What does this fold into?
Amino acid sequence: MKDTFYTHLLDEIKDDECPICRSFLKGTKRYLDYLLYENVNDGGTRASFLESDGFCEYHAKLMLHHGDLLGHALLYDL
It folds into this structure.
């Protein structure tokens, strides 16, 4: 019996792009959507984010090109 990860991985094999990298990128974008459109209004989430010094350069750029600028401003307390 195949597990759901195996089935999902087979769905991601489409071209020369790595299916694992594609899967992680999709998951990261889903997380950013959730953070920028849902969780950004939660004061505790924003405080934890600021205390942790935010994202690394790669993920900060990904977030900048991915989401809503209002969400970024609220998250970074600008």
Remarks:
- The mean pLDDT is 82.
